[in-house]
Design brief:
two-stranded antiparallel sheet, about 55% helix, about 5% strand, elongated
Length: about 190
Protein backbone atom coordinates (compact mmCIF):
# COMPACT_ATOMS: atom_id res chain seq x y z
CA UNK A 1 0.00 0.00 0.00
CA UNK A 2 1.25 3.46 -0.87
CA UNK A 3 1.33 5.97 1.97
CA UNK A 4 2.42 9.54 1.29
CA UNK A 5 2.64 11.81 4.31
CA UNK A 6 4.74 14.48 2.65
CA UNK A 7 4.51 15.39 -1.02
CA UNK A 8 7.82 17.20 -1.38
CA UNK A 9 11.12 15.52 -0.49
CA UNK A 10 13.68 17.96 -1.95
CA UNK A 11 15.63 14.93 -3.25
CA UNK A 12 14.92 15.97 -6.84
CA UNK A 13 16.17 19.52 -6.46
CA UNK A 14 19.45 18.46 -8.08
CA UNK A 15 17.67 17.46 -11.31
CA UNK A 16 17.47 13.74 -10.57
CA UNK A 17 14.62 11.45 -9.66
CA UNK A 18 14.41 8.05 -8.04
CA UNK A 19 13.55 4.78 -9.72
CA UNK A 20 11.80 1.82 -8.11
CA UNK A 21 15.10 0.18 -7.13
CA UNK A 22 16.30 3.33 -5.36
CA UNK A 23 18.74 4.37 -8.08
CA UNK A 24 18.60 7.94 -9.35
CA UNK A 25 18.60 9.25 -12.93
CA UNK A 26 18.38 12.66 -14.58
CA UNK A 27 14.86 14.01 -14.86
CA UNK A 28 15.44 14.57 -18.57
CA UNK A 29 16.55 10.97 -19.25
CA UNK A 30 14.66 9.15 -22.01
CA UNK A 31 13.17 6.75 -19.43
CA UNK A 32 11.74 9.72 -17.54
CA UNK A 33 10.38 11.26 -20.75
CA UNK A 34 8.44 8.04 -21.38
CA UNK A 35 7.16 7.96 -17.80
CA UNK A 36 6.08 11.59 -18.12
CA UNK A 37 4.24 10.99 -21.38
CA UNK A 38 2.43 8.00 -19.85
CA UNK A 39 1.43 10.20 -16.90
CA UNK A 40 0.17 12.89 -19.29
CA UNK A 41 -1.81 10.31 -21.23
CA UNK A 42 -3.34 9.07 -17.98
CA UNK A 43 -4.28 12.62 -16.98
CA UNK A 44 -5.97 13.23 -20.32
CA UNK A 45 -7.88 9.97 -19.99
CA UNK A 46 -9.02 11.28 -16.61
CA UNK A 47 -10.41 14.38 -18.36
CA UNK A 48 -12.19 12.16 -20.89
CA UNK A 49 -13.55 10.00 -18.07
CA UNK A 50 -15.18 13.10 -16.57
CA UNK A 51 -17.37 13.15 -19.70
CA UNK A 52 -18.06 9.40 -19.81
CA UNK A 53 -20.47 7.08 -18.09
CA UNK A 54 -21.37 3.43 -17.89
CA UNK A 55 -19.16 0.88 -19.60
CA UNK A 56 -16.97 3.55 -21.23
CA UNK A 57 -16.18 5.07 -17.84
CA UNK A 58 -15.41 1.65 -16.35
CA UNK A 59 -13.05 0.82 -19.22
CA UNK A 60 -11.29 4.19 -18.94
CA UNK A 61 -10.73 3.63 -15.21
CA UNK A 62 -9.25 0.20 -15.94
CA UNK A 63 -6.92 1.80 -18.48
CA UNK A 64 -5.91 4.47 -15.96
CA UNK A 65 -4.91 1.74 -13.51
CA UNK A 66 -3.02 -0.05 -16.30
CA UNK A 67 -1.13 3.17 -17.03
CA UNK A 68 -0.08 3.55 -13.40
CA UNK A 69 1.22 -0.02 -13.56
CA UNK A 70 2.95 0.79 -16.86
CA UNK A 71 4.60 3.84 -15.30
CA UNK A 72 5.89 1.68 -12.46
CA UNK A 73 7.11 -0.85 -15.04
CA UNK A 74 9.04 1.86 -16.90
CA UNK A 75 10.51 3.06 -13.58
CA UNK A 76 11.82 -0.42 -12.73
CA UNK A 77 15.32 -1.01 -14.12
CA UNK A 78 16.51 -4.46 -15.11
CA UNK A 79 16.09 -7.17 -17.68
CA UNK A 80 13.55 -9.36 -15.85
CA UNK A 81 10.13 -8.38 -17.15
CA UNK A 82 8.12 -11.00 -15.28
CA UNK A 83 5.70 -9.49 -12.78
CA UNK A 84 6.25 -10.36 -9.16
CA UNK A 85 4.75 -9.72 -5.78
CA UNK A 86 6.64 -6.43 -5.51
CA UNK A 87 7.26 -5.79 -9.24
CA UNK A 88 4.62 -4.36 -11.54
CA UNK A 89 5.07 -5.30 -15.18
CA UNK A 90 2.80 -4.82 -18.16
CA UNK A 91 1.77 -8.23 -19.49
CA UNK A 92 0.45 -9.56 -22.81
CA UNK A 93 -2.97 -10.17 -21.23
CA UNK A 94 -3.45 -6.40 -20.86
CA UNK A 95 -2.65 -5.84 -24.55
CA UNK A 96 -5.03 -8.65 -25.52
CA UNK A 97 -7.80 -7.12 -23.39
CA UNK A 98 -7.47 -3.86 -25.32
CA UNK A 99 -7.60 -5.75 -28.61
CA UNK A 100 -10.75 -7.58 -27.53
CA UNK A 101 -12.39 -4.32 -26.47
CA UNK A 102 -11.42 -2.68 -29.78
CA UNK A 103 -13.00 -5.57 -31.67
CA UNK A 104 -16.17 -5.37 -29.55
CA UNK A 105 -16.52 -1.60 -30.05
CA UNK A 106 -15.76 -1.86 -33.76
CA UNK A 107 -18.72 -4.16 -34.42
CA UNK A 108 -21.21 -1.26 -34.19
CA UNK A 109 -19.11 1.11 -36.31
CA UNK A 110 -19.47 1.60 -40.03
CA UNK A 111 -16.23 1.25 -41.98
CA UNK A 112 -14.27 4.46 -42.45
CA UNK A 113 -14.70 6.15 -45.84
CA UNK A 114 -12.18 8.86 -45.05
CA UNK A 115 -9.76 9.88 -42.35
CA UNK A 116 -11.58 11.62 -39.53
CA UNK A 117 -10.72 14.90 -37.89
CA UNK A 118 -10.29 14.88 -34.11
CA UNK A 119 -13.47 16.22 -32.55
CA UNK A 120 -17.19 15.71 -32.50
CA UNK A 121 -18.67 15.28 -29.05
CA UNK A 122 -16.85 16.57 -25.99
CA UNK A 123 -16.00 13.01 -24.94
CA UNK A 124 -14.73 12.13 -28.43
CA UNK A 125 -12.57 15.27 -28.59
CA UNK A 126 -10.98 14.43 -25.23
CA UNK A 127 -10.40 10.83 -26.32
CA UNK A 128 -8.65 12.08 -29.46
CA UNK A 129 -6.32 14.29 -27.39
CA UNK A 130 -5.54 11.30 -25.18
CA UNK A 131 -4.95 9.20 -28.33
CA UNK A 132 -2.43 11.66 -29.72
CA UNK A 133 -0.64 11.77 -26.38
CA UNK A 134 -0.61 7.97 -26.16
CA UNK A 135 1.10 7.91 -29.57
CA UNK A 136 3.75 10.29 -28.22
CA UNK A 137 4.16 8.11 -25.12
CA UNK A 138 4.72 5.13 -27.40
CA UNK A 139 7.37 7.04 -29.38
CA UNK A 140 9.22 8.13 -26.24
CA UNK A 141 9.04 4.58 -24.84
CA UNK A 142 10.58 3.28 -28.07
CA UNK A 143 13.31 5.94 -27.81
CA UNK A 144 13.95 4.99 -24.16
CA UNK A 145 14.13 1.30 -25.11
CA UNK A 146 17.00 2.22 -27.44
CA UNK A 147 18.94 3.55 -24.45
CA UNK A 148 17.94 1.26 -21.56
CA UNK A 149 16.33 -2.14 -21.15
CA UNK A 150 12.52 -1.77 -21.09
CA UNK A 151 9.72 -4.29 -21.01
CA UNK A 152 8.72 -4.83 -24.68
CA UNK A 153 5.06 -5.10 -23.59
CA UNK A 154 5.07 -1.41 -22.55
CA UNK A 155 5.27 0.15 -26.03
CA UNK A 156 2.94 -2.57 -27.36
CA UNK A 157 0.35 -1.59 -24.74
CA UNK A 158 0.69 2.08 -25.70
CA UNK A 159 0.33 1.22 -29.40
CA UNK A 160 -2.86 -0.71 -28.74
CA UNK A 161 -4.11 1.97 -26.35
CA UNK A 162 -3.94 4.65 -29.04
CA UNK A 163 -5.96 2.37 -31.33
CA UNK A 164 -8.44 1.78 -28.48
CA UNK A 165 -8.82 5.53 -27.91
CA UNK A 166 -9.40 6.12 -31.64
CA UNK A 167 -12.18 3.53 -31.77
CA UNK A 168 -13.64 4.75 -28.45
CA UNK A 169 -13.78 8.30 -29.88
CA UNK A 170 -15.79 6.98 -32.82
CA UNK A 171 -18.13 5.21 -30.39
CA UNK A 172 -18.50 8.49 -28.49
CA UNK A 173 -19.45 10.16 -31.78
CA UNK A 174 -22.72 8.23 -32.01
CA UNK A 175 -20.94 5.11 -33.24
CA UNK A 176 -19.23 7.08 -35.99
CA UNK A 177 -22.34 8.88 -37.26
CA UNK A 178 -21.05 12.19 -35.87
CA UNK A 179 -17.43 11.73 -36.96
CA UNK A 180 -16.02 14.73 -38.75
CA UNK A 181 -14.61 13.53 -42.05
CA UNK A 182 -11.46 14.93 -43.59
CA UNK A 183 -12.10 16.51 -46.98
CA UNK A 184 -8.73 16.59 -48.76
CA UNK A 185 -7.97 19.98 -50.28
CA UNK A 186 -11.31 21.45 -49.13
CA UNK A 187 -9.87 24.86 -48.29
CA UNK A 188 -7.75 25.43 -51.41
Amino acid sequence: MVKLNKIYTRTGDDGTTGLVDGSRIAKDASRMAAIGDVDETNSLIGVAAAHAGGEMLARLRTIQNDLFDLGADLATPGDDFEPGEMTLRTVAKQVTRLENEIDAMNVALSPLRSFILPGGSSLAAHLHVARATARRAERTAVTAAGAVSLNPQAPMYLNRLSDWLFVAARVANANGADDILWVPGASR
